[in-house]
Write a structure and sequence with these properties.
By secondary structure, the protein is mostly beta strands. The protein has 3 helices and 59 strands. The chain has a 31-stranded parallel beta sheet that branches. The chain has an 8-stranded parallel beta sheet with strand order 35-38-43-45-47-50-54-57, with no helix packed on it. A 7-stranded parallel beta sheet has the order 12-15-18-21-24-27-32.
Length: 636
Amino acid sequence: MKSFTIFLPVIIFFSLTFLSCSDEEIFNEFIAENTKEEEVDDTDSEDESPATDPEISPLGKISETPCDFTLSSLEANSTTSIDCLMDLNGETVNLASNVSLDFNGGEIVNGTLNFNGGVIDGKLLNHNLSIDGTVELKEETFSFYPERWGIVDGKTTDQKALSNKLNLRKAIDLVHELGGKIFEIGEIDFYVDVQIYLANPKFQAQESILLPSSDFHLKMSGNTHIRVQPNGAPAYNLMSVFEGNNIKITGGNLYGDRWEHDYSPVNDTEGRPRNSHAWGHIIKVQGGTNVLIENVYLANPIGDGFGVHGSSIRNADGTPGESVISKNVTMRNCTIEAARRNGMSILDGDGILIENCQILDTGLGPVEDGSTFGTGGTSPRYGVSFEAYRERTESGELLEYNRIENVTLRGNTFKNNHAGDVVLFTCSNITIEENFFDSRIGNIAANDIIIRNNTMKARIDEDGKPFNYALNLQSNISEWDGEFTYNYTISGNTIEGYGNAMILGGKDFKVFDNKFINNKNALGFENIDGGEFYGNEFTSDVDFSIAYFSRGATLTNVSVTNETINVDYRPINLRSIEARSNDPLTFTNCELISVDQKANFIENSSNISITNNILNTDITVNNSTNINISNNTDPD
């Protein structure tokens, strides 16, 4: 049991600048705190019906017969069944010790109950009754009956959408304080006002449907629909976990206002233009620990469908400092559809699992030109974006205000995401396995990455052209720290139908047991320091298709062994390769078959060794030095 007082919350508007993962002003934007409060008028002259008619409520018809007894007269340790209407007339009733109140078709309204120990049936709770003192719920599972909480169903005014949010928040907070663990919402379709004129983890959470801090399960049904009230603000969270532990969100359908949003130019509370309107989220976990989000449908945000962040930025050295880091966060069996910016953005966290989700149609629509914005997608327009924010000082010091570590994407389906499916930006220890992709995985400055057992099949655009890349991993070298793209294991993937299936640059790659099927260009070398390629299988009947290729690269300690290649045009087509004389690029024990019997090709290159392979064509060498071609045989 807990001792507490519950009050109807007020709307808080915060005067802070927006967070942008590309702005150098982020630090100040997170730590500034300047607030003002504004009371909410919960009255409205319009005659609107509550979400559910009390006569057809699961509660049954609520009695309107006045009670013929008073609660103040109840004896200690007694149990009373409420089967009548108890109007407290705005007064506070002090109950005897350990009184229990059961629901039997009645209600208590218009006042405060002050308990001295005891129990209350959750079906008696409503937005016109305040609870004080020490008391607990009769059951840990609470069923939310919207007619008892003043919820207006369907499209409504801004004022009533705000009231919807506040009354839902009041119910959630009250149930949690009374010891409730599971908050059930059944059939309902309503709007909530969650807009805010800044983008900051704490303040966006405070203006959202904010879940309690610990041990709470929001359990929605397939008929639960909660929608963002259309607005013109640049930011919102529809639902938030902020510094919460052991939280579950399951079921339900949650919607942003992307298609009804007002994208007119707008300034934040510091007067700065925030015209992209890119900070509206459906669910955001900010400093959450042991969080599960399961079987939820999320759609149509002006920004991201789902986000994971710390409660604030970290210290410059990457230590948490005052930030609560999100840890052990799982999203499972969810669908994220038609997000305007990213399906999902992971900015900071350690131990995140995204499993068996569908991430669809991200960032579609006309490309914004940077000056005017609308319902069309806004950058980066990826299914999942890892985007930890870092800066470097003029002296070269790396400031790690975010870190992303130990994330797994498993068994997900990515389809029709505009720019790509996954971008690995400043993250570490990421596993991507058993997913379906129809576009690409890209990277900037990511390390210790495992990409295995995925199916990647290029989608075809309106002009009949396949998506250009499946994996596009780029070298990123700092003059102070060296290579930021390193330690990649890529294995067991099936990659089909791309213009360029895989282009690799960076340090320490192991690429093995992949199947490349009907790609125009299969595996391209950029600058690589340490690469082992073995056991891969290349087949293609696409005209002029190529297996290994390069258009310019410096290679160190790179070997290709035990490969099976059977493509239409050239197994090897290497241009402007530079290796070292004592460390050549090697092709050994491979089968290199050209269906059209087109010669392999090497041009403007140095230090390549092709030995002990099976070839059905010659190798043409132009303007190149130290090319060793020996001990190769024809196929049987």
